What does this fold into?
Amino acid sequence: MSGKLIVVEGIEGAGKTSIVERIITWLKEVQGVEALTFREPGSTPIGEAVRTLIKHPDSDISVETQTELLWLARRRLLEDVVQPLLDEGKWVILDRYWMSTLAYQWDYYSSQPLHPVIEEIANTYQRPDFMFYLDVSPKVAKKRCTSGAGRGDVADKNDDAPLSTFTMWHRRYGEIVSAYDKIMGDSNKTLVINADQTFSMVADDVIFALNQSI
Ligand code: ATM
It folds into this structure.
């Protein structure tokens, strides 16, 4: 089997990290495929440094600087880690990718029409074989984060964001996914999964979608 890139996207509380772990287990146990996972930002020295900066509750970095740092870290991850692995035929799963930058650093891009921005990104950077968007409603996401169920490695400033902010991220993701799908046409469309469901139902939907295409 040749190398494949799987991306899992979604707002806080969507359950991305748990789903990534589930995909890895399924690939290994059912398909006999060893997959490696990386998180964004993170997974390289520069990526982890950017992660600490972005997630710190007191961080006060302009959106321009955030965007530049995120892309810098992403390029390192892609060039130094992901691409060589794909070239070796390995499977790679990314916990977040460029859709996160458009959704969270939206203000950086808001003066430009979304479609050409996405088209340029999609034509420049490694295109995922499977782009999953875990579509969780803002209320469910907020509740999971408040209860601690949606938290990742450390609590960060976004976990405590008000419902209106979760709603805003959700709306942006909706626009990004829809623009991306128009650009992709019938090939490589985003696999949108209802992430309001229980973890095992979300996992079943993701595995079903993967199983159909590999
Ligand atoms: P999680 O991987 O735990 O979701 O945290 C990553 C954080 O980085 C997340 N929220 N906080 N705080 C979203 C943020 N982020 C961006 O703002 N832009 C990006 O491009 C990426 C990849 C993440």
Notes: The beta strands are 5-9, 35-39, 91-95, 130-135, 191-194.
